[in-house]
Amino acid sequence: MLYFTARGYEKFQPRYVILGILLNIAIGLFFTNVNERGVIDVINYLHDSPSVGFITPCHSTPWQSHFHNPNLNAWFLTCEPPLHLNKPTLEEIKQYRDESDQFYDAPESFLQTHLGVDLPYPQHLVVFEPLESLMNELKGYHECQRFFNSYFHWDSRRNGDVIVYCRD
């Protein structure tokens, strides 16, 4: 306020101050209660599930911080750093692909290779909407629940709804 006063502004128009405050409140409510809400809702929905697989980008959903279930048989696509490389070159680091990267490089091939082998078939699979067509082709699962997540997201892999698929 002193900044504007020192530069010759006499007074803020009260209607603009009120408009600014209301706009900030609306934006705050949207980003804390609406946007990306689906990732919390899906955890609440699956709280008592015996087994869950998350086919989502790394760190998309809260994990045991919300599940609080030590008996849950669950897995997710990992994004471990290349700690196995001893003094890696910049080129080796650039070429390293974690499990999540490998999945998004070739989703259908990844599922055929890993699902049921090193990733056990869970009771529920969780994906974001961009993978809906791939999951609809997956035998043995059907869509059983959908949660609104976002109108927009900085990561296109996380756009749209969070979808839960149940094992037939």
TrEMBL record:
Molecular function via GO: alpha-1,2-mannosyltransferase activity
CC per GO annotation: endoplasmic reticulum membrane
Residue intervals passing through the bilayer: 16-34
Membrane topology: Multi-pass membrane protein
Record keywords: Endoplasmic reticulum, Glycosyltransferase, GPI-anchor biosynthesis, Membrane, Transferase, Transmembrane, Transmembrane helix
Family: Belongs to the glycosyltransferase 22 family. PIGB subfamily.
Protein name as it appears in the record: Mannosyltransferase
Biological source species: Candida maltosa (strain Xu316) (Yeast)
